[in-house]
Amino acid sequence: MGVLKKFEQRLEGLVNGTFAKVFKSEVQPVEIAGALQRECDNNATIWNRDRTVVPNDFIVELSAPDHERLSPYSGQLGDELAGMVRDYAKQQRYTFMGPIKVNLEKADDLDTGLYRVRSRTLASSSSQQAPSAPPAGRPGPAQSGYGYPPAAPAGAPPMPAAPPPGTRPGGYGYPQPATQRPAAAPMSGGRTRYWIEINGSRHQISRPTLVLGRSTEADVRIDDPGVSRRHCEIRTGTPSTIQDLGSTNGIVVDGQHTTRATLRDGSRIVVGSTTIIYRQAEG
Q1: For residue range 63-76, what is the model confidence (pLDDT) as tens digits?
Q2: Which of 142, 171, 224, 278 is the most exposed place for a label (fewest CB within 10 A)?
Q3: Number of H helices, E strands in the chain
Q4: Who's near 155: CB < 8 A, 6+ residues apart?
């Protein structure tokens, strides 16, 4: 059973009690839970083959009406959401630098039903080290701020350079960036690397098959109303192929509407209103 489903079931037991009014809000707790999962995936930083660090401090910004409805229950809801993040991290083999916290805040620029998630990695005092200089061309607030990579603990190997992802809008009316569920284990024995590019974001293909769709259970989630929950599947190999999975709107590959096609480096795939570039390279 998925982490989101378990979270939903735990909340169902509270609907007739403390959380009765929460579910009248246009923003549903399970939506926030899904956004926190995506925030972890989007900000995961690989330190070595045995350790991938994700944010542990989250702020969920809500519209004034939604915040007013949810704030009386923010403590209990924050604890439930933190527990969901902990369960998801265990499932994905993520690690944290400190305790997990989820706080709700009001954002006057958001309309009812819209929300925004910000995250940062806060190291515990025993593992904090002096911050390094920010990447060239980036502003220089304190390290480990919202949208910035975590500070490495003393003695840890240096983290790979990566641009700060910044805040990500979410909720009804905002398109979410495509997000990828990390592969359980990398493929072995092959010399060809495979990946896709969506809206400037790169997603490695580390297993033989990759499902794209609007569902949170897809390997790469694309929040596009024209994309089906399980829209299509990419199979890597010689050659690599893409297969439509019975989607409503189908797929277009290199300008041709099709249900199955062979992929080459640079192939353009269109699902809904989203364009995906398929890439592969030797070495």
Answers
A1: 888 888 888 888 88
A2: 142
A3: 4, 18
A4: none
